[in-house]
Amino acid sequence: EAQVTQNPRYLITVTGKKLTVTCSQNMNHEYMSWYRQDPGLGLRQIYYSMNVEVTDKGDVPEGYKVSRKEKRNFPLILESPSPNQTSLYFCASSLKHPRTNYGYTFGSGTRLTVV
Amino acid sequence: QKEVEQNSGPLSVPEGAIASLNCTYSDRGSQSFFWYRQYSGKSPELIMSIYSNGDKEDGRFTAQLNKASQYVSLLIRDSQPSDSATYLCAVSSNTGNQFYFGTGTSLTVIP
Fold it and tell me: Dihedral, CA atoms, A92, A105, B36, B53, nearest 10 degrees?
């Protein structure tokens, strides 16, 4: 089944404890992205990757890191999580870059709480 | 100014009616436009994409694009209770590197 797999689905952690949210897609998509979704603010892009080893900042990159060493994987790293990073996170992938007519396939989401 | 603006609603329509959802965007260079549906507690799923001016139909859904007015809309004909969800408008950036999302319109279809 074509899908984007995120793990974990739910995570409660403490301030400052490094964590990684994994994302993997099996559709050979070139473009991958991380979003956070907060009430009233909608989906905001954290980082995106146009292809392997090509990553760039989105609109809210502070406090996050990413890497794209393989085409299928795009992990999101929080080196020192803070309570303001409590949010619902989505990984998404698209066959090609956004200027084309291909939309996103989203992962199931990761509900992160930082206490 | 936000890149993509949507009326947050809630929008309520009776079952069988036409639901009309609207979206405006600020970047004149945007080339691709999308509508997603998001049920409560779930991830967004793609409904339709459009990149040419005019209408594009897919079953009960019609997307309309007017680049001169920087306006995208989604019509849902014969609305069903299962259409009750939040609808997200997404627009590609001028550079083509990013998607921008609106905050979504909440739709409730009343049986």
Answer: 100
